[in-house]
Amino acid sequence: MTGRLRIAVLGELAVTRPDGERMPLPQSKKTRALLGYLAITRKDHRRDRLTRLLWDVTDDPRGALRWSLSKLRRVVDEGEVKRLLATRETARLDRDAIDLDLAAVEAVAKAPEDASTEALEEAAAAFHGELLEGLDLDEFFDYEAWLVGQREHARELLGALSEALIARHANAPDRALAHARTLVRSEPLDVARRVRLIQLLVATGRRAEADKHVESGHRLAKDLGQPIPVALRQALTPTSAEPPPAEPPRPSEDFGRVSTLHLEVPIMKSTIHGHALFGREGELKELAERLDLARESGRLQGTLIDGEPGVGKSRLLVELMTETRRRRGYLVEGSAFEVEQSRPFGPWRDAFKRLPKKHVDGAGLTSLARTDAPALERAALFEAVSAFLMERARAHAPLLLAFDDFQWFDEASASLLHYVVRSCKDAPIAVMLAARGGELVDNVDALRAVRGLRTKRLLQPYDLGALDERAIDLLTRPLGPLLDPAQLHRESGGNPLYALELARSGPRGALEAPTLAQLVRDRVERLPAGADAVLRWAAVLGTTFSVPLLTALTSEPEGLLDVLEALERHALVGSVVDFNEPGGTYAFAHDLVRRVVYADLSLPRRRLMHARVVEVLARMAETKPSAVLDLAHHAKLAGQPAVAVDACARAAARCLELGAPREALGYAQQGEKLAETLAEGVAGTRAGELEGLRNEARAALESETAAAAAAK
Question: Which end of the chain is more exposed for a tag (fewer CB within 10 A), N or C?
Answer without folding.
Answer: C
